[in-house]
Amino acid sequence: MQISKLKCSIMMGFGMFQSTLKGALSHISQLRSLPKNTRMVHNKVTIIGSGPAAHTAAIYLARAEIKPTLYEGMFANGVAAGGQLTTTTEIENFPGFPEGLTGSELMDKMKEQSERFGTEVITETVAKVDVTSRPFKYWTEFNEDAEPNTTDALILATGASAKRMNLPGEETYWQQGISACAVCDGAVPIFRNKPLAVIGGGDSACEEASFLTKYGSKVYMLVRKDHLRASTIMQRRAEKNEKIEILYNTEGLEAKGDGKFLNALRLLNNKTKQEYDLPVNGLFYAIGHTPATSIVAGQVDLYENGYVKTVPGSAITSVPGVFAAGDVQDSRYRQAITSAGSGCMAALDAEKFLAEQE
Ligand SMILES: Cc1cc2nc3c(=O)[nH]c(=O)nc-3n(C[C@H](O)[C@H](O)[C@H](O)COP(=O)(O)OP(=O)(O)OC[C@H]3O[C@@H](n4cnc5c(N)ncnc54)[C@H](O)[C@@H]3O)c2cc1C
């Protein structure tokens, strides 16, 4: 147990260092190439995004000899090219990698596979799109006033980002005890048989807390209000679970630890105004995600929570020729493998759309 814990710490620490360094280096090299796009281009298919959805779509389209152009972004929405997986360490649930690999390694492999079949990957952020008429128009960051580029079909794979609370100490213990994905990180050895906390009071928080009881010795749900927002069935499930304790009127104030790993939370009871430390080795945020849909808002139908609406079982959006894949259209599963699956769907839908236009 001790050895596996140590191994995990080293891997997590090294992984974080690697991804931070990599992000910084890639940012510097990206900045060096600025501004780059002064020539207007026309593409058959343009993919916006660089996570598993974007690269899977690219692999399928490139293999179908529709040379796609993929804009991987330049820290678009604060996420490095490669997407959310570049912010994590070990990925143990992506099929095909029985030993696990880091998020950055997985994304590097996907990018390599996209390029191998002829995808053009451009390290720029798409700042603006106009999908009101075809061919669609788009502009990249720093080129918003230039002539637009055009495309016959567009795949949105811009992802989403987990909301964070930015508590003092959060940066230090991010991925060293703090996570925003219980399904992704719950099984990591540092959380096994340890007290854990989930912040949030909705369905996801109840679901994540229940899920974490498989691993933690106890799971505290920290709820700001005096009641849960979750559906009745989810509330009952959480309330009945002997390993879950719901702390109402409770707010997080600070993430504390030994400099390496989280070991406590400073909390406030907003009713009694009492502050105290709760010993926990894991903190999971379940306070929602923000889909990266601002560039299409008002042009493509979105749900109230901002996610792109797609025709069930497809990547088809309300605008013919615009397809959406990955977390940007999925508020439910939000996994690398489901994103990759929907990237495949978007590519096949786009291919069919183009064939029908010929
Ligand atoms: C900490 C953490 C750990 C996780 N661990 C796992 C795990 O172990 N297993 C698992 O299956 N899932 C995991 N996930 C979830 C997984 O990362 C996501 O489900 C998946 O990455 C979503 O892929 P995506 O292709 O939709 O887009 P994202 O990965 O969200 O990538 C979208 C990319 O598009 C870019 N972009 C956005 N807007 C623009 C624009 N206008 N122009 C150009 N580029 C743009 C962004 O910068 C980003 O790089 C984890 C998530 C997090 C946050």
UniProtKB/TrEMBL annotation:
<keyword id="KW-0560">Oxidoreductase</keyword>
<keyword id="KW-1015">Disulfide bond</keyword>
<comment type="similarity">
    <text>Belongs to the class-II pyridine nucleotide-disulfide oxidoreductase family.</text>
</comment>
<dbReference type="InterPro" id="IPR023753">
    <property type="entry name" value="FAD/NAD-binding_dom"/>
</dbReference>
<keyword id="KW-0676">Redox-active center</keyword>
<comment type="subunit">
    <text>Homodimer.</text>
</comment>
<feature type="domain" description="FAD/NAD(P)-binding">
    <location>
        <begin position="44"/>
        <end position="343"/>
    </location>
</feature>
<dbReference type="GO" id="GO:0005737">
    <property type="term" value="C:cytoplasm"/>
</dbReference>
<dbReference type="GO" id="GO:0004791">
    <property type="term" value="F:thioredoxin-disulfide reductase (NADPH) activity"/>
</dbReference>
<keyword id="KW-0521">NADP</keyword>
<dbReference type="GO" id="GO:0019430">
    <property type="term" value="P:removal of superoxide radicals"/>
</dbReference>
<dbReference type="InterPro" id="IPR050097">
    <property type="entry name" value="Ferredoxin-NADP_redctase_2"/>
</dbReference>
<keyword id="KW-0285">Flavoprotein</keyword>
<keyword id="KW-0274">FAD</keyword>
<dbReference type="InterPro" id="IPR036188">
    <property type="entry name" value="FAD/NAD-bd_sf"/>
</dbReference>
<protein>
    <recommendedName>
        <fullName>Thioredoxin reductase</fullName>
        <ecNumber>1.8.1.9</ecNumber>
    </recommendedName>
</protein>
<dbReference type="InterPro" id="IPR005982">
    <property type="entry name" value="Thioredox_Rdtase"/>
</dbReference>
<dbReference type="InterPro" id="IPR008255">
    <property type="entry name" value="Pyr_nucl-diS_OxRdtase_2_AS"/>
</dbReference>
<dbReference type="Pfam" id="PF07992">
    <property type="entry name" value="Pyr_redox_2"/>
</dbReference>
